[in-house]
Amino acid sequence: MIHVLIVDDSVFSQKVTANLLKKVMQGEVIEISFASDGEEGLEKFRNLKPDFIFIDLLMPKLSGAELVRIVQKEGGSGVVVVTADVQKSVREEIEAQNVLAFVNKPLNDEKMRLLCDRMIKDDKNGSGMLSL
After folding, report:
1. pTM of the complete model
2. Of 39, 124, 109, whose CA–CA distance to 76 is shortest?
3. Domain that holds residue 115
4. What CA–CA distances, in Å, run from 50 to 47, 53, 86, 95, 112?
5. In Å, how far are 12, 40, 46 from 111, measured between CA atoms?
6. CATH of the domain at 22
7. Could you give the number of structural domains in the chain?
8. Angle formed by the axes of helices 11-24 and 109-120, to 10°?
């Protein structure tokens, strides 16, 4: 079973991400949990120990960038950053954190398919960042 935590302050974005994951990962047993801000995301990351964590960058209480730093430091989960923030400096900062993928919103079937191919191979940190 693959456990995914989606951390995004937009309920709409949470639902889109979850629905795309379920659609693309048909045949895989997948459990999806949600958090609506960075602090809740950190708490659920520590308690649930998901295989993968999808993190939006622009969130209240604890920024997505800070959450990425903490998750990468504590380890154990493949990090996927999903954001509408496409500034070069932001991308470079996240790339330096050795995340699995940096995905520009909006997510779609093709982006999710490429991302899930990487996830299924269980390549959490091995081949460089996937940029979509």
Report:
1. 0.88
2. 124
3. 2-131
4. 9, 7, 26, 21, 18
5. 18, 26, 27
6. 3.40.50.2300
7. 1
8. 60
Q: Is 80 helix (H, G, I), strand (E, B) or coil?
A: strand
Alpha-helical runs (H) found in 1-132: 11-24, 38-48, 64-74, 88-95, 109-120
C-alpha atoms less than 13 angstroms from C-alpha of 30 in its C-beta half-sphere: 22
**Token match 């999808």: residue?**
54
Give per-10-residue mean pLDDT for the chain (132 aa).
94 96 88 97 97 93 93 90 81 82 88 84 55 62
For residue 101, give every residue at least 6 positions away whose Cβ sits within 8 Å of its Cβ, in sequence order, or none: 80, 81, 115, 118, 129, 130, 131, 132
Contact 38, 60 (CB under 8 A): yes
